[in-house]
Design brief:
Blueprint: H1 2-20, E1 25-43, E2 46-56, E3 60-70, E4 73-83, E5 99-110, E6 113-121, H2 123-126, E7 152-163, E8 166-173, E9 191-200, E10 203-212, E11 220-232, E12 235-246, E13 253-266, E14 270-282, E15 287-301, E16 304-317, E17 320-334
Antiparallel strand pairs: 1-2, 1-3, 1-17, 3-4, 4-5, 5-6, 6-7, 7-8, 8-9, 9-10, 10-11, 11-12, 12-13, 13-14, 14-15, 15-16, 16-17
């Protein structure tokens, strides 16, 4: 508890001076998302984890605001940190940290849309829209495979906007290497991500692409994502397809995804939901994975949701099989 209070104190110390010294439109906001449930991890017939855990899922604290310059132009900013009530300030020894950076940027907003510089989700990540029914939980699509596309990059320069029912976003990021290795990423746009979307009535369609330099960058060389969601009556159906090529300088590996998602209203405040994603990683040894998740959400009010869920991620790499599962309940409170 003492370490958690230290984490909150440090985050507050970083954010409160910004609010106190500004007369602009400023909002302090956050989200606390905690779960309690049984976690199992098994690989090759050996159980590595089988216990009950209390965990935080992308809880956050941030400040955002704008400054009106007149003539429809304003300055915008956001400084957001991930906070983990279930972790130490720096590291819990399990790869988690009490305070981590999330989206943090400064920019301009006007009739053209938004132009930002800093750290931000890529357009490809944002293109998923409302497909993922289990975001920020064990059922999040990012757990289905290696080339998930759920990236948030430093050094981003981005432009996003819309015209009628059509939206667009493009972001570039220099690699900021020193060039002495001969293959280093030294250009102005070593990473490029863009998306186009159509959102009208019940239909949402998005197409996005990420491209990376092949130098010292060890991420995917390219990744393409297509998302379609459709609302009808009291339910929504979603389809995701993406394909990527990873590490072409070493051994080219193509990874293909196809996913389905579903939600349906259950009573005045409830929602049933399900998600199924299949991934095939065509590396030297082919890996086939499936993510299955089912759950029920109950909305107490506009900012508070409770849920129960079960999710399983199964993988087969050659003769070796593994499975990670979570079964439990959680609560999300926004402020």
């Amino acid at each position: 508890m003492k370490k958690n209070l230290i984490s909150l104190t440090v985050a507050s110390a970083l954010l409160l001076p910004v609010v106190a010294q500004s007369a602009d439109d400023v909002t302090v906001y956050g989200r606390v998302h905690m779960s309690y449930g049984q976690v199992t991890e098994e690989a090759g017939g050996v159980t590595a984890v089988d216990n009950w855990q209390v965990r935080s899922h992308d809880s956050r604290l941030g400040v955002k605001g704008s400054r009106d310059f007149g003539n429809g132009l304003s300055g915008i900013y956001k400084i957001e940190f991930g906070v983990n009530p279930d972790s130490d300030l720096v590291s819990a020894g399990d790869g988690t940290a009490g305070i981590v950076r999330r989206n943090q940027y400064v920019g301009l907003k006007g009739g053209f849309g938004e132009f930002i510089i800093g750290r931000h989700d890529t357009p490809l990540k944002m293109a998923q829209g409302k497909f993922d029914q289990f975001g920020d939980t064990d059922g999040d699509l990012k757990h289905a495979g290696a080339q998930d596309g759920e990236h948030r990059f430093d050094n981003i320069v981005a432009l996003k906007g819309k015209s009628g029912d059509f939206g667009y976003a493009i972001a570039v990021a220099p690699g900021e290497d020193n060039g002495t290795g001969g293959t280093a990423d030294t250009g102005p746009a070593d990473t490029v991500s863009f998306s186009v979307s159509y959102n009208a009535g019940p239909l949402y369609i998005a197409l996005a692409q990420d491209s990376y330099e092949n130098g010292e960058n060890l991420a995917s060389d390219s990744l393409t994502r297509m998302v379609v969601t459709y609302k009808m009556a009291e339910m929504q159906l979603g389809l995701l397809y993406q394909t990527g090529v990873e590490k072409p300088a070493a051994a080219t590996a193509e990874e293909d995804w196809i996913g389905l998602s579903f939600n349906m209203k259950a009573g005045d405040n409830g929602k049933l939901k399900a998600q199924y994603i299949m991934v095939e990683d065509n590396a030297a040894t082919v890996t086939e994975s499936t993510l299955t998740a089912v759950g029920y959400d109950y909305k107490f009010d506009k900012k508070t949701t409770g849920y129960v869920m079960y999710t399983s991620v199964q993988s087969d790499t050659g003769p070796v099989s593994s499975e990670d599962t979570f079964m439990g309940a959680g609560m999300v409170l926004k402020f």
